[in-house]
Specification:
Helix 1 packs across helix 5, helix 4 runs parallel beside helix 8 and helix 6 crosses helix 7. It contains eight helices and twelve strands. The protein has two domains: 116 residues, Response regulator (Rossmann fold, 3-Layer(aba) Sandwich); 95 residues, Winged helix-like DNA-binding domain superfamily/Winged helix DNA-binding domain (Arc Repressor Mutant, subunit A). With 230 residues, it is an alpha/beta fold. Strand 4, helix 4 and strand 5 form a beta-alpha-beta unit. Helix content is 39%, strand content 21%. It is globular, with a radius of gyration of 18 Å. It has a five-stranded parallel β-sheet with strand order 2-1-3-4-5, sandwiched between helices. Strands 6-7-8-9 form a four-stranded antiparallel β-sheet, covered by helices on one side.
Length: 230
């Protein structure tokens, strides 16, 4: 079985040393980097399956590192954010993070978030055909983790892909935030968690709007989201 390689970019030497030890006991291979610019180069090397990135770094903001990663790569990125700081969480997600975990967190919680992200990067269904899911102008190839909109490729994070795939499968039906969180983030929806909303905002920007100015993804207040039919 191939070992999953994880890169942690964080200048808290003691804490990430603890995480490294725990993750390696859990079967991961872990490299540490304490500077953002160096971490950026390593993240783009193609050697890793996932990056854990702190929002605060000594030489460059973590969000800047993430923005630069997203210009060249869709590698899954898990952000470390300040505990209870919703602004950090939202900024991280808007910059292209797949998910976040507040610090301080337990190694066990970190492993759970990592495994949830890695599960999301695998097809949601057993691939039986190369045919895409077609939902109006949207086409989604589950096994290739590829999507197109009006026949133009969409650049999506792993979380955005799964959210859009879930909406495509259920086109015309309201999908609750609870269902979206469980299927697309791989974890239960928690109180005051705005992750789904932020990811949906990003997807909407990538899809644009209809001729009448309406979004292709409708918010149904108090219920969830719906990819509308033409």
């Amino acid at each position: 079985m191939q070992v999953t390689k994880v890169l942690i970019i964080d200048d808290d030497v003691e804490l990430v040393g603890l995480f490294k030890e725990y993750l390696e006991k859990d079967g991961f291979e872990v490299d540490l980097c304490f500077l953002g610019r160096q971490g950026l180069q390593q993240a783009l090397s193609g050697a890793y399956q996932l990056v854990i990135l702190d929002i605060m770094l000594p030489d460059i903001k973590g969000t800047e590192v993430l923005t630069l990663i997203r210009k060249e790569s869709r590698i899954p990125v898990l952000m470390f954010t300040a505990k209870g700081d919703d602004v950090d969480k939202i900024i991280g997600l808007e910059s292209g993070a797949d998910d976040y975990v507040p610090k301080p967190c337990t190694p066990r919680e970190l492993v759970a978030r990592i495994r949830a992200i890695l599960r999301r990067t695998q097809p949601m269904h057993e691939p039986e055909t190369n045919e895409p899911i077609i939902a109006g102008h949207l086409k989604v190839w589950t096994e290739k983790r590829k999507a197109s909109w009006f026949d133009d490729d969409l650049a999506l994070t792993s979380t955005e892909f799964n959210l859009l795939e879930t909406l495509a499968i259920n086109i015309g039906r309201i999908v609750t935030k609870k269902e979206l969180s469980e299927k697309s983030l791989g974890r239960p929806l928690t109180r005051f968690d705005r992750s789904i909303d932020v990811h949906m905002s990003s997807i909407r920007q990538k899809l644009g709007v209809q001729a009448d100015g309406r979004s292709y993804i409708q918010t149904v207040r108090g219920q969830g989201y719906q990819l509308i039919k033409d």
